[in-house]
Amino acid sequence: MEAYKQEFIEFMVDSGVLKFGEFTLKSGRKSPFFMNAGAYVTGSQLKRLGEYYAKAIHDNFGDDFDVLFGPAYKGIPLSVAAAIAYSELYGRQIRYCSNRKEAKDHGDVGILLGSSLKDGDRVIMIEDVTTSGKSIEETVPILRAQGNVEIKGLMVSLNRMEKGLGGEKSALEEIKEKYEIEARAIVTMQEVIEQLWNKPCSGQVLIDDNLKAAIDRYYETYGVQ
To answer: For position 108, what pLDDT does the model report?
Structure first.
């Protein structure tokens, strides 16, 4: 596993973003782990988060894109932080763009924040985590309504490795199949388990044998390879 992935897993834990216990997800699933990117709240956290996204995007997609699109609302700071980091790490001026929940009819009118989109733009979407893929179903039509843009890919911070809306393939696999979009993650849940199972992180073992058994049971129902 790459060093930045190991660092990112510990960063999620230290930031209170990745937690373990009993959680009810938006999808209704009862999960033994939960990720909330809204817990990144300080300048230093957002700076580091942007760097991890930028490194993962560069590793997976290279420089073959023009715009980072972060769906409202959590995707807005993600796209801004990643665009700044990409400029600092790789010397490329990448534009950021996000959507409003409702179109603005005065001043800076329209549905978009940040950069406008034009024909020929190559876009990478940024999300925090995708469990069922529902948010992408809402986002892709917004992008394609702006013109002849090419959606190069989707980058999420954590691939939960769960069944998507169809109930067989993972949410990221469904996105790739339905929209012909490469969907990648900074880390997968498999990598998180590899890093944390019976190993200390921030002075404690977060995934012991009991929690690992609970995660295994969860994946028996909702998991995909």
So the answer is: 61
Catalytic residue among 106, 176, 199, 212: 106
Res 131: pLDDT: 59
Helix-then-strand count for the chain, H and E: 7, 10
Strands (E), 72-218: 95-104, 110-114, 122-130, 150-159, 182-188, 200-201, 204-205
**pTM for the structure as a whole:** 0.91
Angle, alpha carbons 173-8-136 (nearest 5°): 30
**Phi/psi of residue 220, each to 5°?**
-65, -30
Among 26, 6, 8, 25, smallest CA distance to 17 is for 8
Give long-range contacts, CB 8 A cutoff, 24+ apart: 216-219: 218/30, 218/31, 218/32, 219/161, 219/162
Which member of 5, 26, 74, 104 is catalytic?
104
Identify the helix (H) or strand (E) that includes residue 34: strand 30-35
pLDDT, one tens digit per residue, over 102-134 is 766 655 657 888 999 999 999 999 998 875 566
Active site residue 58: no
**Residue of 191, 194, 197 whose CA lies nearest to 213:** 197
Q: Which two tokens stand for residue 143?
A: 């992008």
By the 10 Å C-beta count (0-12 exposed, 13-18 middle, 19+ buried), 83 is classed as: buried
